[in-house]
Amino acid sequence: MSKAKKIALGILIGVVALVLALVVAVPLLINIDRYRPEVVKHLEAETGKPVEIGKLTLHVFPTVSIHVDDFSMGNPEGFPQGVFVKARRISAVVDAGQLWDRKVAIKSLELDDPVLNLLQDTRGKWNFENPPAPHTSSTASDQSPSSFSLGVISKVTISNAQLKAANLLANGREGPAYFQGQGVNVELEQVDLNAFTAAVLMGVPRLAAPAGRGSWWTSVAYAAERTPAAQGNLSAKSLMFSNLQVTSVKSKLRLFPKQVYLDDLNFDLYDGHAAGALNFNFAARNPRYNTQAKLKGVNMEKLLAAFPEARGKMTGTMDGTIKLAGEVAHSSDPLAGMQGAGQVSVKNGRLPSLNLNKNLMTLARLSNLGAAQGDPSSFSSMSSDFNIANNRITTNKVTILGNGVDIDGSGVLTMLGDGSLDYQGIAKLAAGESPVSGLLSGLTGATMENGKLNLPFGIGGTLSNPRFILKSVGSQNQMNAIQGLLGGKQSTQAGQTQQQPSDLVQGITGLFKKKKQP
């Protein structure tokens, strides 16, 4: 090796050794943990919340950074004792030049395993809001020999976070969570922390929507005109909205003071998938939401199992489109504060608790109409529109292709308590012109059309105990005579006679059995 190469190698080794020495020595020489009380005091003065920090350490490789271990920030005054946010470790990359001037300016921030608990009190105030604080405290801090400032941070990374949102009850205790998130990962750019923690937050004005546009357009249009306080990407293992759980969540994210927008949202939903958008507005006393989504392949049995009142009521695979808007209402009614509309279809399912097909197939077996075999509660497809308003779901048209029975109907559903059903429809059974079909027409008010016997019916009762009702449009005298023949019961209203399945269908069954006797 030449002398020049030996000199160059020696210089390189010396530089490397010097860098290594600095990496080891600088953190030892600069005991940044001694500034921990000052940092805690500054954060408490800025936020009005109690702060605890386990330890501060300085690292100079690969970048100059400060590690904050065991960080926690408690709830502000007026909320129950507890932690608003905590993190196992926070790593802050700082401006090295300003650090020598004893000023901490954060360039990027990483939070590992944070836990965020959002609480709203009965006045509509949140625990992430800051109470008014005198500016003198902040000014004094800025003029001190060292300062720690919050501001715009170029990049914020949050790994494996847990989120929860709940309301305080009238007794001051924390109520049940209406939103939860597990395994949440977030990458944000140009994060303005002061915008989220300011004492007085900008209100969200109402915009007049063009004709035919609703609150969804208003919210999105207003957000598009503003610069977000932070934006980036979000992913999560699972998010829970009340009883409804979604998994494998991926979305673009925009954050405003008291507003969250999830754009290009994709997630899995009970063996199926959904894509759409969602936003929350926390400015009002009750948080508001807007969402639109396209659903594909959702398992209805698993979906309904999340709601005790609807558990076991339907199976099958659902596709559809929905738009929902409303507020998080503190009510036992799942439809409280909700408005929306959409179209859904379910394939290859069952309606185990509804005996509609069972009753109709009883007639089919007696008269050799339609299908007389198979599961009476099964259907190959069901399609329906829906509109949600005034604590009820209204359907203008629902079509069911069942096991030998096709059904067209409409009606109203409520879900408070046991819920209520009020549906009317026409059931269609394949039939030819015969004395039997003619007799059934007279007994039930059915009509013949295109080779099918059309029977009017209604569905009432509750979700847990639905009641199938065959209807008749026959004359009062005719029905009285038939009723006397069958020995069944009847009730009349405005010239219309309605029979319970146990009355009319069983009576018809008895009539046919009598005819078969020698």
Describe what you observe in this structure:
The chain has a 25-stranded mixed beta sheet that branches. The protein contains eleven helices and 25 strands. The longest helix has 27 residues, at 3-29. Mean pLDDT is 75; it is low at 14-29, 135-146, 199-218, 473-479 and 481-518. It has 518 residues and is an alpha+beta fold. It folds into two domains: 24-198 and 216-305, no CATH class; 349-516, no CATH class. 24% of the residues lie in helices and 44% in strands. The chain is elongated and about 110 Å long.
Features:
518 residues, 2 domains, disordered C terminus, 25-stranded mixed beta sheet, alpha+beta, 24% helix, 11 helices, elongated
Quick gist of this model?
The protein is an alpha+beta fold.
Topology:
Layout: H1 3-29, H2 36-47, E1 51-52, E2 55-59, E3 65-74, E4 83-94, H3 96-100, E5 103-112, E6 115-120, H4 135-143, E7 147-149, E8 152-167, E9 179-192, H5 193-197, H6 215-224, E10 230-241, E11 244-256, E12 259-269, E13 272-281, E14 288-299, H7 300-305, E15 317-327, E16 338-350, H8 356-367, E17 378-389, E18 392-402, E19 406-414, E20 420-430, H9 435-444, E21 447-449, E22 452-461, E23 466-472, H10 476-486, E24 491-493, E25 496-499, H11 501-516
Parallel strand pairs: 5-7, 5-8, 6-8
Antiparallel strand pairs: 1-3, 2-3, 3-4, 4-5, 4-6, 8-9, 9-10, 10-11, 11-12, 12-13, 13-14, 14-15, 15-16, 16-17, 17-18, 18-19, 19-20, 20-22, 21-22, 22-23, 23-25, 24-25
Strand content: 35-45%
Distance between the termini: 122 Å
Number of E-type strands: 25
**Roughly what percent helix?**
10-25%
- Uncertain residue segments: 14-29, 135-146, 199-218, 473-479, 481-518
Number of domains: 2
Q: Helix segment count?
A: 11
Helix/sheet category? alpha+beta
